[in-house]
Amino acid sequence: NILCGKEYCRDCGREGSPQHQKRFNRWLPKAKALNKFGVLVVTIPDELHYKFQNKTKLSQFRTALKNKLKALGFERGLMRWHLFGDCIYCNGKQCYKCNHTGAGNVYKPHLNVVIDAGYIKDIHNSQIMLQLKKFVTTYLKRIFNKTYENVINYHYSKRLTDRIHQIKYITRSPFIVTGK
């Protein structure tokens, strides 16, 4: 089969497709090389979703966040945009409503960031989280001249099986793929 590689394609975008396996296989050795495995999820505020519908804005935000993480001491990591949230019926667990992809149909751009970090005590009040939230707030205010509430979630995985599950989730297509 000749595959197009587009995540919204019926063949390339489905869970476990050769394209998904290719992304997963590219990420796995990099993730295994990390000493620790923390995952940040930075969600664009709801009011700004429409402003982040082009690659340029998404890329600029990603680059700025990457530079901030490097300044905070995170030299290694992986980043990937998911443009849609999870299916509201199954909460990303795969059901017939989302054609067993786990993806929702509401545009909700969020950046998944795997960093070399483990457990962070009192994460919501930690210096790292406070600096990241301040950075995102400042970044959005500089561009849009308004302060927006931002959402950043963090969790870490100790076990290899949890890391593999996270990588499979992050590398999956964030689109509902219709058809076979």
What do these coordinates show?
The mean pLDDT is 86. Helix content is 35%, strand content 19%. The radius of gyration is 17 Å and the shape is globular. The longest helix has 18 residues. It starts with 17 loop residues before the first helix and ends in a 9-residue tail after the last helix. The protein has 180 residues and is an alpha+beta fold. It has a 4-stranded antiparallel beta sheet, sandwiched between helices.
Q: Shape, please?
A: globular
Proportion of beta-strand residues: 15-25%
Separate helix tally: 4
Low-confidence stretches: none
The largest beta-sheet arranges its strands as 2-3-1-4
Q: What structural class do the secondary elements suggest?
A: alpha+beta
Q: What distance separates the N and C termini? A: 15 Å
Largest sheet, in brief, is: 4 strands, antiparallel
Work out the radius of gyration. 17 Å
The average pLDDT score comes to 86
| Helix-strand pattern | HEHEEHEH
**SS elements, strand count:** 4
The level of helicity is: 25-40%
Task: Describe how the helices and strands are arranged.
Layout: H1 18-33, E1 38-43, H2 55-71, E2 77-86, E3 103-115, H3 127-144, E4 151-156, H4 160-171
Antiparallel strand pairs: 1-3, 1-4, 2-3
Helix pairs in contact: 1-4, 2-3
